[in-house]
Amino acid sequence: CLTDGTGGLHLTAGYQAARLWFGTMMQLRSPREYWLADALPVYLGTMSIEPPLGRQIFLGEMGVLRNALYTLADQNKDQPLAIGERCPITIRVTKGAWVLHMLRYLMYDLDKNSDLTFLKFTNDLAKRMNAATFTNVDFEKLAEQYYGQSLGWFFDEWLYGRDIPRFDVKRAVEQQGTEWVVNLTVGCKDVLSSFTMPVLCL
User: Fold this and answer.
1) Phi, psi of 41 (to 5 degrees)
2) N or C: which end of the chain has fewer CB within 10 A?
3) DSSP of 142-199, one letter per residue?
4) pLDDT tens-digit profile of 66-111?
5) What is the DSSP string of 137-149?
């Protein structure tokens, strides 16, 4: 499993290490926060394989989570994360991991090409969740503190909503003199017209 394009044993070790930070000491207020207990170790464990194994393998593992989520959505089994234990654990893991992944890149520092803000956020999150009762609202407020703006639109869609968007990306590359121009078109379906998602170009 270490040579077939997946995280293999590195991923297992990452999960277990993440559970030292987000494990039995987490003080969740109610079942509505169960998604945090399920998704945080999975995403941070997956994130940990990127430095040793490379970005493509990391993205491959995220793709596995995405595909599992789409399969459930196609079966009309998707549920809002915030309904707690009524939300299937597979949804809590897969959708929750992608919520964290999207937050990571919303907080990404393009000027410094750095994840430091997201890492500080997760470090602060662990301290707070292991020290006092924690709620989804607390999670939202802490994320907004590190993001620097309101994230109400984001959590309305991904924590309290149930629609899963599908993106259709088209690109065209052409040379103009000594420069290359890339035209990118991103289409989105299966969600309301009010659905919002910034596009980060690295």
Assistant:
1) -65, -35
2) C
3) HHHHHHSS--HHHHHHHTS-----EEEEEEEEEEETTEEEEEEEEEEESS-TT-----
4) 999 999 999 998 999 999 989 999 999 999 999 999 999 999 999 9
5) HHHHHHHHHHHSS
Sign of the dihedral through C-alpha 140, 107, 105, 48:
negative
Question: How many whole angstroms separate alpha carbon 107 and alpha carbon 114?
Answer: 9
Q: Per DSSP, what are the bridge partners of residue 185?
A: 170
Give the whole-angstrom CA distance, residue 5 versus residue 112.
29
Angle of helix 34-47 versus helix 8-21 axis, rounded to 10: 130
Query: Over the stretch 171-195, which tens digit does the pLDDT of each residue have?
Result: 899 999 999 998 888 888 888 878 8
Distance CA 49, CA 26 (A): 24
If we measure between CA atoms, which residue out of 17, 36, 15, 39 comes closest to residue 26? 36
Name the region of 76 (left: φ>0; alpha: ψ -120 to 50; beta: rest): left
Contact present, 129 and 168 (Cβ < 8 Å): no
